Amino acid sequence: MREALTSLNHVHSATLDALSMAMDFRDQSTSGHSRRVADLTAGAAGRMGIKDLALVQIEHGALLHDIGKLKIPDSILWKPAKLTEEEWRMMQRHAEFGYEFLSNVEFLKGAAELVYSHHEKYDGTGYPRGLRGEEIPFGARVFMIVDTVDAMIYKRPYNRPVSFHDAAAEVRRCSGTQFDPNLIEPTLTYLSEHIPEDRIYSEATCR
Ligand SMILES: [Fe+2]
Fold this sequence. Notes:
This protein is mostly helical. Helices cover 62% and strands 0% of the residues. It has a single domain, classed as Hypothetical protein af1432. It is globular, with a radius of gyration of 17 Å. The termini are far apart. Fe (ii) ion (FE2) binds next to loops.
């Protein structure tokens, strides 16, 4: 029985990884972005005392955070220019589309909550529900810090990478507005210990 469960967990993991790689490819994210933010979000949450199923759900939610973009038309997802008001409203719907996908799968229902909330902001100005403070699931509040730092320190088609120190300063600047002030330092400390050294001290390649 234990062997069957272990093997089922491996199948789940491999399937979710394949799905996340497909998402990264379509979204033109840096290679491995989803796996990276999943590991770092789960690692930071684990350091803050989350464990067992709750931790697995955070990892799965972080891994599949943008899965709802599968339902966003290419013309919007890949538009090289600024989105119109209507296109932006459609793009924002990826959070609820992701929630709809995952909440239909029994073992991903917990992860669906993080996916639904991954664009909320601490001060209530995010989307889709305008949740504020601790109404936003804990995993989503950690994820937002990790995802922001990852987006800044790795090059994407539409931005230039900055050093970890600059990314951390930006996160601290948004304390209490975008991010949970209580989670910033523990998350940044975890990140500083776990992201590659060349991303921390890459000042020369930044600007
Ligand atoms: Fe997203």
